[in-house]
Amino acid sequence: MLLLLLACQEQNLAIEIPQEAYEWECYDKPEHSEITITAGVCNELDSMTATILLIGNNSSEISLNHDGGCWWSSNITQNENCIEIEQIIITAQEGGSNGR
Fold first, then answer.
1. Residue 100 above 80 pLDDT?
2. Distance of CA 52 to CAs 8, 25, 33, 42, 95, Å?
3. How far is the C-alpha of 50 from the C-alpha of 24, rounded, in Å?
4. Where are the domains of the chain?
5. Contact 26, 85 (CB under 8 A)
6. What is the DSSP pairing of strand 45-54 with strand 71-78?
7. What is the mean pLDDT of the segment spanning 27-46?
8. What is the pLDDT, as a whole number, of residue 34?
9. How far is Cα 55 from Cα 86, in angstroms, rounded to an integer?
10. Which residue of 7, 29, 66, 90 could cross-link 17, Cys pair, CB 3.0 to 4.6 Å?
């Protein structure tokens, strides 16, 4: 029973992606801001999520699209200005069965 529990926990383990493996840019537009995130990670991953931490403890999460090979990206539109972004953290779910 313990081994089954450990195996289930291992499959759902979120891995934080190091900042060196991704880049992001933010552009303020008159009506909104646009954030472009690109990550280059060559592990077998099921999904990747970007958490945008804003000044004042607000945050939002967005899934990144797998562009093929090692590349993941997302274009995000938000109401907050770029200066309100405190940090962007990317986490991933490891896989292996889907060939990414």
1. no
2. 28, 12, 13, 23, 24
3. 10
4. 2-94
5. yes
6. unpaired
7. 93
8. 96
9. 6
10. 90
Please give the model's pTM, rounded to 2 decimal places.
Answer: 0.77
Question: What is the DSSP secondary-structure string of 34-97?
Answer: EEEEEEE--S-EEEEEEEEEETTS-EEEEEPEEEETTEEEEEEEESS-GGGEEEEEEEEEE--S
Residue 73 burial (C-beta neighbours within 10 Å; 0-12, 13-18, 19+): middle
The domain made up of 2-94 is a member of CATH 2.40.160: no
Higher pLDDT, 59 or 4: 59
Cα 92 to Cα 5: distance, rounded to the nearest angstrom: 21
Q: What is the pLDDT of residues 41-59, one digit of tens each?
A: 988 889 999 999 999 888 9
Neighbours of 5 (CB within 10 A): 9
